[in-house]
Amino acid sequence: MTGSLSAAWSTPLKGAASLLFLGHMAATCVQGIPEQSSLRPLSVPFRRYEELTGLWQTWDMFTTIPYFHDYRVDLDVTDADGKTSHEGVLLPGLRDFDQVVRTETLFVRYLYDAEFAPYLKGYVERACGELRAKTGHGGQQIVIRESAQRMRWLNQIREDGKISIPEEHSSQPFRCAE
Amino acid sequence: MKKIIAFFWGPADPRAYALVRVLFAVAALANLIDLWPRRFSYMGAAGMVPLEGLRHANAGKLYGSVFYLVTSDVGVTAVFAVAALALVALGLGYKTRLAAAIALAWHLSYSHRAFPVLHGWDAILRSYALLVFISPSGRVWSVDGLLRPDPEDAADVPAYGLRLMQWQLFVLYFLTVWLKVPDAFWRSGQVLAYFSVSQYSRSPNDLFLVRHEWLSAIGTYLSLAAEASIPWLLWARRTRFLGMAVGFGLHLMIGVTARLGVFSMCMIPPYMAYLERGDIDWLIALGRVRTVRDLRARLTKAFSETRRASD
């Protein structure tokens, strides 16, 4: 009796699960619809599912060339009395940049992607906290300074063998609390 | 509806699940080891990813992470250690379902804590962690199976997990090609030359591909062609091993030439989801080959069987 009951339920249950699987497949691919597409709203019903299950994804790695031959980043610190110094950007400890791909990505996102502005604010507050602990006072002005080597065009590199030109970017100055 | 049910619930070789599980655990462990030296910087309370910024940026979203609660250095280290143990257990197939649950929780936790440092391979690991968790565990090759043998372990299991894994790989390659094709540098074939002297290269001062741009063009176009064709090659039995060879070759090349070794490792487990019983039997037989004559006989037999199957 139990066997025939479970057999009777087997097909409907498998059918229901199959619909869920189809939903999962749809959730996997609708995220790839471009933001500008009129079909983009199709992705909206799946967002909560993607957030909950961790299915959210983008596959935009290396969709164009990298721009830098070398990339470094550090902190320029100016004390209230005008004295300047350099500090490392890695927290905790204001350690030197480690040239790790993930860390580089973090700073590029903090500095150039508006979505990461809340993170940048928190990062600066922590860096200020570390400076305060190190020097015993606050009030410094800090600037996140990128020192990159921007790649030249291939024909230019072939002409003289010089791969890149130095390029520096400085963030807006941030004032540490006293 | 019958066809849909047959597609998801048709028979599959449990060893395919076991292969995905084992290789997934290895790749996930490599990723964890890569994160380990920077665990306090990325996940810790005094690190570079402030929790208050995270809460602000992700307000209203259903993200969960054990690192929202565990922020001390000792706590972060403990979470890493538990996750590492779970990944080892998952690879070995010991308490597999529990290990898979912890592996999923680990991937959700670090991804939802350290958004600013994430890359494509984190999404691969996260999505496959979910799929490994909901799939049959591949008990046939596991410590659990050795400790409590069950004749049913080797029997066919439902294919739904493999189908979802296959779909994920298809979407991954399709979208990456979709996004690359319009780019001027991919179209001009210059990507490999630029990449070879970029900060992501293992030898950024080597001008070989810059001086031989035609090689870069061939390599760039071949990479695109490989990414566009791999899911199709894997799907058809006749071309499956060609698809594997192309994919492994592509990711081996990336792993050797770029500072993205973990990415290459993460791309291998999904391929195992395409293997069928005959493929795995053939691979096992290949592993037992001791002489060139044996190898030739195996390859000839496999070739004729594949031809017969496709005819």
Pick out its properties:
heterodimer; A: about 180 residues; alpha+beta; 5-stranded antiparallel β-sheet; about 40% helix; extended; B: about 300 residues; mainly alpha; two-stranded antiparallel ribbon; 17 helices; 2 strands; globular
List strands and helices in order, with pairings.
The complex is a heterodimer of chains A (178) and B (311).
Chain A: H1 2-30, H2 47-53, E1 68-78, E2 84-87, H3 101-112, H4 117-135, E3 141-151, H5 154-160, E4 164-170, E5 174-175
Chain B: H1 2-9, E1 11-12, H2 14-35, H3 39-43, H4 51-57, H5 73-92, H6 96-113, H7 120-134, H8 143-147, E2 157-158, H9 160-180, H10 184-188, H11 191-196, H12 208-211, H13 213-235, H14 240-257, H15 261-266, H16 277-287, H17 292-310
Antiparallel strand pairs in B: 1-2
The averaged pLDDT of chain A comes out at 94
Order of helices and strands of chain B: HEHHHHHHHEHHHHHHHHH
Count of helical stretches of chain A: 5
Major beta-sheet overview of chain A:
5 strands, antiparallel
Strand order of the largest sheet of chain B: 1-2
Structural summary, described in words:
The complex is a heterodimer of chains A (178) and B (311). In chain A, 42% of the residues lie in helices and 20% in strands. With 178 residues, chain A is α+β, with helices and mostly antiparallel strands. Chain A has helices spanning 2-30, 47-53, 101-112, 117-135, 154-160; strands spanning 68-78, 84-87, 141-151, 164-170, 174-175. In chain A, strands 1, 2, 3, 4 and 5 form a 5-stranded antiparallel β-sheet that branches. Helices cover 68% and strands 1% of the residues of chain B. Chain B has helices spanning 2-9, 14-35, 39-43, 51-57, 73-92, 96-113, 120-134, 143-147, 160-180, 184-188, 191-196, 208-211, 213-235, 240-257, 261-266, 277-287, 292-310; strands spanning 11-12, 157-158. A two-stranded antiparallel ribbon of chain B has the order 1-2. Chain B is globular. Chains A and B meet through helix 1, helix 2, strand 1, helix 3 and helix 4 of A and helix 1, helix 3, helix 4, helix 6 and helix 7 of B.
